[in-house]
Design a protein that fits this description.
By secondary structure, the protein is mainly alpha-helical. 56% of the residues lie in helices and 8% in strands. It has five helices and three strands. Helix 1 crosses helix 3 and helix 2 packs across helix 3. The protein is elongated, with a radius of gyration of 19 Å.
């Protein structure tokens, strides 16, 4: 697993998001072990509590589970749970605002569909 951290978002959230991305993309699979909080902390030279916050967020959502003394693992159905979560977030963050803006501009649903297909009309 290779992670790139940036300074724009909290580190714990970046760790959680990157693990989610790796699961969704199939880089890590259900049942696979993920790095521990101490491994994240050592690799990024961060406080273990920061890494634990990101990992625990995924444990709380049922995406990861702990095997005492062995490590953290990807739960069964994690990928489908994450895809469902991301689709809901996509709908709320992109589709609803798109629809509201389209209504303001008097763009009809059919025209939006055409635009999404890449054959939209550029009418003023």
């Amino acid at each position: 697993m290779k992670f790139n951290l940036d300074s724009d978002r909290p580190i714990f959230q970046q760790i959680a998001d990157q693990i989610e991305d790796e699961i969704i993309h199939g880089t890590i699979h259900e049942g696979d072990r993920v790095p521990s909080t101490n491994e994240f902390a050592a690799h990024y030279q961060i406080n273990p509590a920061t890494a634990a916050k990101g990992i625990n967020q995924l444990v709380d959502q049922g995406i990861l589970y702990k095997k005492r003394g062995i490590g953290m693992f990807v739960a069964e159905e994690a990928k489908s749970v994450l895809i469902k979560k991301r689709k809901t977030k996509f709908f709320e963050n992109y589709i609803i605002p798109l629809k509201l803006e389209a209504e303001k501009l008097n763009i009809h649903v059919e025209d939006l569909i055409d635009m999404l297909k890449g054959v939209g009309r550029n009418e003023n």
